[in-house]
Amino acid sequence: MTEIREFRIEVPQAALDDLHARLDHARWPTQPPGVGWDRGVPGDYLKPLADHWRHSYDWRTWEAELNEFPQFTTRIDGQLVHFLHVRSPEPDALPLIVTHGWPGSVVELMKVIRPLADPRAHGGDPADAFHVVAPSVPGFGFSIPLAEPGWNHRRIALAWVELMSRLGYPRFGAQGGDTGSVVSPELGRVAPHRVVGVHINGGLAFPDLGSFDVDDFTDVERARIAAAECIRRDGTGYADIQSTRPLTVAYGLSDSPVAQLAWIVEKFREWTDPAKDLPESAVELDQLLTNVTLYWLTGTGASSAHLYYETRAEREMEGQQDASDRRSPVPTGLAIFPSDPAIRRIAEREHTLVHWSEFDRGGHFAAMEAPDLLIDDVRTFFRRVRRQT
Q1: Contact assessment for residue 167 and residue 96, using Cβ atoms and an 8 Å cutoff
Q2: Cα Rg of the chain, angstroms
Q3: Left (φ > 0), alpha (ψ -120 to 50) or beta: where does 218 sit?
Q4: Residue 178 a catalytic site member
Q5: How do residues 59-92 score in pLDDT, each as one tens digit?
Q6: pLDDT per residue over 105-144, tens digit each?
Q7: With contact defined as beta carbons under 8 Å apart, do 42 and 34 qualify?
Q8: Does residue 255 carry a catalytic annotation?
Q9: 251 φ, ψ to 5°?
């Protein structure tokens, strides 16, 4: 079945009432005094945030804004896939599939979709226009429930190829951050004859040194390696849990909105612009809460965790391959923000790099933190490859 159906978000009021009741009756843990963020999200930060979520945040306002984007569902490889599809008014626009990451969703793309689709209306050059397709990764948002195990990055990429075929796009570009920084290059590997270019951000957090000698790196590169090692040592507990026991953590995320809030907010505090002290200093607070609310209302704190379990085996298999065997032949551009410890000479082993940008503001969630920089960089990169369509 290849049917594509229109979709509209209509959350029952009973679901919002239940969320509010759970927030009203949250059980709060005790914690040692003076530990700050060292042991996770501190209560003196989370309690006021939960109070704002309960009493000031308005889901209906954001639901209406999300519904301004044309949305659809289709079933691919047995899996229900939800996606936004914003066609450009420009007839020569390039189709572009944009993939979000974890703990994100299509919500994180809200500030970039319209400028990409209609640059003329946003002070840009109409020649840079895209037909934007933004799917919800299986197990995220409204791409639920997970139909079966096995939805790793490669299978997602194959599903995206089929999605673009159903939409009538034989040639297209790919862009993504976090999970999207893995899926988008994979699109170039599984369908190099169809993907004109790949642009990624918010990835490459743990550069594999391979045969490289650290002594040969610059001071900046060594600092990025040290930052990656720090994340690996102190900031990957969530990934260890989700990649080994996703069901165990799922019960807490599915039963407690405070647990879901803390699980996501911690990553926004750690992965956003290092120059920003708190998540709301880096991103719009209610956009962040819309992302959290979407996870809660769809119960995808649980199902999204399974992606880590699936990709653990995928990475183990990839680890047995030489990097050159994984090298994508598709022209690729990387946008590096302050929290992304990427190193060009390492990235070149797996990507055909033709574009490399480094920015001094923004972070892992660039579409939310620095949408202007990301939009401009995506436009700049794809100017180089549009003529191939």
Answers
A1: no
A2: 20
A3: beta
A4: yes
A5: 999 999 999 999 999 999 999 999 999 999 999 9
A6: 999 999 999 999 999 999 999 999 999 999 999 999 999 9
A7: no
A8: no
A9: -65, -40
| Cα 9 to chain centroid, rounded | 20
57 is catalytic: no
CB atoms within 10 A of CB 183: 27
Catalytic residue among 100, 128, 364, 377: 364
Show the tokens assigned to 95: 């189709």
CA angle 100, 144, 280 (to 5 degrees): 40
Distance of CA 237 to the CA centre of its chain: 19
What distance in Å separates the CA atoms of residue 95 and residue 171, rounded to the nearest whole number?
A: 7
Helix 285-298 vs helix 59-66: crossing angle, to nearest 10:
90
Confirm whether pTM is higher than 0.85: yes
Q: Got the DSSP string for 136-151?
A: PPTTSTTS-S--SS--
Strand order in the sheet with 352-358: 4-7, 71-76, 79-86, 130-135, 94-99, 172-177, 195-201, 331-336, 352-358
Residue 11's CB is within 10 A of a number of other CB atoms, namely: 15
Coil, helix or strand at residue 165 = helix
Catalytic residue among 118, 128, 178, 286: 178
* Catalytic site residue from 82, 128, 308, 355: 308
Q: Residue 63 contacts by C-beta under 8 Å, 6 or more apart in sequence? A: 9, 10, 11
